[in-house]
């Protein structure tokens, strides 16, 4: 389990990283936290000719809240997200989500930019970007490009980034103070990739949803912002309504099978998550019986 | 702790003042390991040492039509690229059979495959280079031309006449069959009020040692001697086998086993790639290191379990169990493993089913078949989890059928604690077990009635919790009956040598080995206690065939019971010898003297007479001052093997308390209890942690661990992300209690404790899941109990 030989360059600036990417394109891989890249290289699943280490680009690190917008640098580590007061105030969903990302050792190294650029369909953060309405900021030879989260994820390990582009930051609208969130995933063990997960952000007024964004993950080849959530807006949610939305959600899913779950089981668990999420956000235990905390 | 045997009236060597027996004391090796100063095989660097990487078959079954190594040989750092045929000039093939397993057959296995690969992962060529990375680079350039053959993967199809036959010379794929019939089974079933049947399915899984298998082989042509540094449980076995197949005398092979990062039975076998490494060192006349990487570990470390066992139980309305019947099928890969064979697990299943219970009526068939998957062999608690899950699953099904509480049906049928000695229906002889005392203690520890009440009240809220109970017996302290009688050169006796050094400290050489379970500690505790010296004065040397007595090593829960007794007896002799010298020096008699706290004292008043350091000084440097005729002997050696009973059986009972989320199929383990009886307990903490570790491995099998093969014989989850080992986050608190029935075969009275946890954990969990799902009329008899399995059983998906 030794990686194939590769060249290594430590980028001295974003501009330098972009020069290297322009010159080497698909033959190069960007090293951020290395938590997905290095295992894949050691297993010889991939053999990049050049590793561009962006670890010293401090300008890509950190969280800032300005004018109702939260900007998170691509090199911000999972552990930093967990500790950030700005995240706690303006996007607490992320704090809940990050607690489900692997284990502390991995969270100490893994970065948000790395996770989004890797685009593993079972990862937590891509779905959060959908639920939070994030914008992904990429820089390339042609300058900066802003990509809406729901146009960013293109498939298993596939994104809208070109091989010459570097993901530099994400922007999130700061969530209103009375906004609510829900995060849950089913995984075989703590820290495993989810079998199915859900990141949700909602506004509840008088017991009804005024806004509801449901970001499902591990339900297909990319995270899914469920359109069927719209059916829950401004209605009195009854078991019948929920059942109807559940069926509509089912239509949206194109779940894949793997060793942990068949497609049918994934669809089932997504429906369970929907019910538990709605029940929790509306504080309506009648919608969801039989679950102990 | 509860003692079910009267305290013997005479004091033994263990009842001495300041005894360490029965005390939790820190392990002597703790600082070394905690400070990162251990020496594992992968730490070893020798001059001119090369690294070997094996090219492994990507196919489950294929002929090897050609191997082109020309490009690989030109790669940087490459020393040699060696095929199976080339290696066969220095090492001979082997056949993994034993004569006492009648009818067991297997085919000759080579260190590196010649002409044909029989499982995905079998080595087909070796690349030796200056570094592991260079060897891996070159291995990618070895071009092997394969022709794929039909792969036998499903054990149920392996015996079909339509199936391909893996080894044509054997005629079919049946490696071994054993039939057993005791009592009057048919009549018993006919006279039963209920007869219940079920098929139990066990996933194939593996040991996943933290440190992978590793070996450095160093052939020194000038000495004509091979030194093997290897993490193994049985150094003398490795010495014997390496010598045999390399055409050497045992005196030409030294096996050194320093620190080992976990074994669990994985490292008690002879693996083809390890044999190849010995042979490569001899061929290339230089040290060669092989360290399995994690993917290789999954593909080549022995797998275990993988049984389908049909079971049948008869019961009367009063709760009396009338008979057990089983039909077990297991697939073992393409070869029976060497030298312990792959028939032992199925054989154990036949031996152990029904073992805790009174009924004499028992019929069993076990069949062991070849298949094109990785080799299968003995892993912690060999056969026990299968036998226990089948037996205890059937007992619960019977209880459910007749409406009797699971604890009650066990009370009515477990062998009475005063019925010993007696024998099981399969002929196993029990010296003294304590099923009822253990069950009583367990019920009290878990507050069974309160749990039942809690279960009932939560059910009303649609929360589904379950209680599972599993009684078990465990084979420990094996005599020659295990392997020796079948012709294997695997010693069942162990030896210990102890000597007093010139400053009054003790050096102890033992043939048992240490893999993390505390062999070193228990040996030092026994020696210190029996001699009367503090543990910090006892240095224990293990794992070196040049420097320890001959013995079996550590496996089958034998270290404490056999090696510990040898240590006790050797130390008693040393103590007597020391007291003889002391008596001469002090003009006293040996019976008037004792050794306490590193000094010779007077028995009558405990008054110190002479420090051991002073005694040693006189013996070693001023023997001229001793009375004439005294020749002090400050070293003693003793060996021990149980002779009366082939195995020292232990027993115990486990309970699981868990919650099943009926919407997701997820199982949450809430609590686990174990009461076990391993006889004399030397170090309570070591025993408890052995039990807990064993339970966790059993829980892994129950809920998580499975080697997933596809229909073409490809292992599809050979990595730590997809093969799920149990992790602490999912583990419940595990309470451990003891009943103590010492074996009278040894003065020490210790039986084994290494496998009790693994034996019953999965059975307890499965029974608890079925108890939780009782309102749904669902019975699941398959492990691992994945969410997919549970949701499917509940009809939710």
UniProtKB/TrEMBL annotation, chain A:
A molecular function GO annotation: oxidoreductase activity
Keywords: FAD, Flavoprotein, Oxidoreductase
Record carries keyword Oxidoreductase: yes
Signal peptide (UniProt feature, chain positions): none
The keyword Oxidoreductase is assigned to this record: yes
SUPFAM superfamilies reported in the protein's UniProt record: CO dehydrogenase flavoprotein C-terminal domain-like, FAD-binding/transporter-associated domain-like
Domain FAD-binding PCMH-type, first and last residues per copy: 1-177
InterPro entries: CO_DH_flav_C, CO_DH_flav_C_dom_sf, Diverse_Substr_Oxidored, FAD-bd_PCMH, FAD-bd_PCMH-like_sf, FAD-bd_PCMH_sub1, FAD-bd_PCMH_sub2, Mopterin_DH_FAD-bd
Gene3D superfamilies: 3.30.465.10, CO dehydrogenase flavoprotein, C-terminal domain (3.30.390.50), Uridine Diphospho-n-acetylenolpyruvylglucosamine Reductase, domain 2 (3.30.43.10)
UniProt-recorded name of the protein: Molybdopterin dehydrogenase
Protein source organism: Bradyrhizobium lablabi
TrEMBL record, chain B:
Gene3D superfamilies: Aldehyde oxidase/xanthine dehydrogenase, a/b hammerhead, Aldehyde oxidase/xanthine dehydrogenase, molybdopterin binding domain
Domain of life of the organism encoding this protein: Bacteria
Span of domain Aldehyde oxidase/xanthine dehydrogenase a/b hammerhead: 35-150
Claim: Oxidoreductase is one of the keywords in the record: yes
Pfam assignment, any one: Ald_Xan_dh_C
InterPro entries: Ald_Oxase/Xan_DH_a/b, Ald_Oxase/Xan_DH_a/b_sf, Ald_Oxase/xanthine_DH-like, AldOxase/xan_DH_MoCoBD1, AldOxase/xan_DH_MoCoBD2, AldOxase/xan_DH_Mopterin-bd_sf
Keyword match Chaperone: no
MF (Gene Ontology): iron ion binding; oxidoreductase activity
Keywords: Molybdenum, Oxidoreductase
Protein's name according to its UniProt entry: Carbon monoxide dehydrogenase
